[in-house]
Amino acid sequence: MEYSNWKDYINRSFNGDEFTFEDKTNEKLGTFNIKSNVSTCWISFIWPSNEWKEIDDVQYYSSETTAWSGESIGPNPQKFGKLTQENIERLNNFLKVPLELGWTGEELQLFGKTLKRTSYELPDRKNRILTEFGDDLGCLTYLLFWPILWLVNILIKREIVGTRKLITVEPMRKDAR
User: pTM for this one?
Assistant: First the structure.
């Protein structure tokens, strides 16, 4: 299928009463959000060019968890953000998780601070999407304190200290449930 630009891709891929569009491309964050009407998930197309021929990134989130998809295009928007058949297929594969499979956010907390958040593909949580460490120091927390964090991670998962939250985010499409 050929598209004239990424906006055309969005309009033809996300039609129906399952989605609501929120255009914030002219605001500070520069996002075009596709919100699900049947799930807490949304997809953000970030900083599209004026003609929508290129985008800086596409990510997905849920209002129920701080875990998220990570960057799909961000590491190399000049290559992956251009409207090409290869990039459309790549994006379709990336969006299969929020649209058709759903995902789980796992948050490990100690003393009210998130130590680690991980997102996994459903149904079995075997395919990890993204892991982030720490609320305040990010990866620096992991690099400085990895032996301690490794032990705390085990203790939290065994529910000896801290809390572990598993939040399931249902697919955005009704027919995928």
Answer: 0.86
Please give the full DSSP string across the chain, using - where no structure is assigned: ---SSHHHHHHHHS-STTEEEEEETTSTT-EEEEEESSSSEEEEEES--TTSSB-SEEEEEETTBS-----SSTT-HHHHSB--HHHHHHHHHHHHIIIII-EEEEEEEETTEEEEEEEEETTTS-SEEEEEE-SSSTHHHHHHHHHHHHHHHHHHHTTSSSEEEEEEE--SSGGG-
Same domain, 141 and 62: no
pLDDT of res. 47: 94
For residue 164, pLDDT beyond 80: yes
Domain boundary among 68, 101, 134: 101
